[in-house]
Write a structure and sequence with these properties.
Chain lengths: ~110, ~120
Amino acid sequence: IQLTQSPSSLSASVGDRVTITCRASQGISNFLAWYQQKPGKAPKLLIYTASNLQSGVPSRFSGSGSGTDFTLTISNLQPEDLATYYCQYVKSYPLTFGGGTKVEIK
Amino acid sequence: EEQLVESGGGLVQPGGSLRLSCAASGFTFSDHYMDWVRQAPGKGLEWVGRIRNEVNGYTTEYAASVKGRFIISRDDSKNSVYVQMNSLKTEDTAVYYCARRVDHGGDHEAFDIWGQGTMVTVSS
């Protein structure tokens, strides 16, 4: 399974709605997780099973999709959302990550 | 507080070996599968491998890039997981993270706790 994220980077303003796409090379049902990695830090789990918000994660983050096409949406972008976001296939080995999407704040 | 702390990183020559450790605290370590993920400088995340829990026989899985060179083990009495890295190559240079696998049921899982990472540099 290959995961392709787009765009590879984006720049948006505080308050914007941001959408990141993750496309799987074949259908993976909803076996997908999303992570946020801030500069110099370890990744942090945001979303599991494609659309379930991890405890403690702000509600402006949401995930959707099934099969081959998935999205991570950040509504009302905040300065602290500056980070790289990764999707991950979590059903069979290898547990592949997407290439990442770097989100910058204008 | 649930926490993972890696150690053991450093500079090693190509062909050499290194053993990384990851110490867990704040949760029942023995219940969980544990994984290693690495990140080369300026690059994305790469899953390295996994060790299952005792109930599942402590079995392991590896990425093709490290299979036959890396060995993942664990000591539940010490709440620790290890990766023994042999025949190291320059392309193994990366920050290595350990991560806890959480099972959400129905084979749905994710990595919900990560360590801070330890840097491994393979260079002559």
